[in-house]
Amino acid sequence: MSTSGEDSTLLDVDLRATVRRPGRDGDSADAEEPRPTGRAVDPAQARATRTLPEPAPLQSHGPARVVALCNQKGGVGKTTSTINLGAALTEYGRRVLLVDFDPQGALSVGLGIQPHQLDRTIYDVLMESSVTLDDVLLKTNVPGMDLVPSNIDLSAAEVQLVNEVAREQTLARALAPALPDYDLVLIDCQPSLGLLTVNALTAADGVIIPLECEFFSLRGVALLIDTIEKVRERLNPRLHIEGILATMYDSRTVHGREVFARVVEAFGDTVYDTVITRTVRFPETTVAGEPITTWAPSSSGALQYRNLAKEVLTR
Predict the structure, then answer these.
(1) What pLDDT does 217 receive?
(2) End-to-end distance of the chain based on CA atoms, in angstroms?
(3) Which of 61, 181, 190, 226 maximizes the CB count within 10 A of its CB?
């Protein structure tokens, strides 16, 4: 997919007309926009969606499909989506490996693990030939879902890998022995387009781009897709965009609806039908250290990630 031409034009838009300056008399800058009236069209609801079949059970596991969840902007829902998509996939009988590839260790924290207390992480697998993936692998509280943890040590790998031969393939080599044991490997990338992210893209078969329905997230998509195209051309010919996932969507705001409509207009069916809406349940799950599918299994967020899992398996 290219962002040149029509796509880049659609992304390079001025959304100032969709917002209004707060008034000075009793109109708080933090006041929530009222829910839309019957005349306000929610593009996420109005969009024609595809019927999602129930995923067929598997007779055996592996080799794994590797998917990187990537966006150079932070706070767009990468980690939340990695955890909850992985947990939802296990409900359909898939074996899932989560790879925390962010030095902040948010994925590990989100599953109830304290990264600073770990002796070995993905960093050791990358930098020490004597350490294997099995040496750092952790079981989660979700049956069928394992974790390769990370902590601040990983930040040193970006510098240390610079002088390595075939440095972009380091993660791919580390993951290779585990692929026969899993159906999907989900890599939670750090919010940058540095060497660690390039490693994740080189190891991946596909990319899911979590995109917050907000202006600055929209602006960064073209740069990210340009990086994906360069990795595909130079390092990983099988790499493709699995889909764009709209996150933190709030249909009550004109801005959110406008951004979502622009993304669909630019990327069409590449945008998942599933839209992840804002809910207080997601911050709660981070504190609880478990996915929303077990913390609040009947919530709208859990349902959305189950639908996303169906879409990922269908594609």
Answers:
(1) 79
(2) 16
(3) 190
Sign of the CA dihedral with 29 first, then 32, 38, and 44 last = positive
Tokens standing for 90? 């296990």
Of the listed ranges 145-149, 235-239, 252-256, 293-297, the least confidently predicted one is 252-256
The label of the residue with tokens 């540095």 reads 194
Express each pLDDT in 256-293 by its tens digit: 899 999 999 989 999 999 999 998 889 889 888 999 99
Pairing of strands 240-249, 138-139: unpaired
Question: What does the longest C-alpha to C-alpha distance in the chain come to?
Answer: 67
The neighbouring-strand residues paired with 10 are none
- Are 61 and 182 in contact by the 8 Å Cβ rule? The answer is yes
210-228 per-position pLDDT tens digit: 999 888 877 788 889 999 9
CA–CA gap between residue 18 and residue 83 (Å, rounded): 33
CA dihedral sign, ordered 115, 116, 117, 120: positive
Annotated domain spans of the chain: 60-314
With the C-alpha atoms ordered 20, 24, 25, 31, is the resulting torsion angle positive or negative?
A: positive
The pTM score is 0.87
Whether 151 and 187 have beta carbons less than 8 Å apart is answered as no
Instruction: Tell me which CATH homologous superfamily contains domain 60-314.
Output: P-loop containing nucleotide triphosphate hydrolases (3.40.50.300)
The amino acid at residue 314 is: T
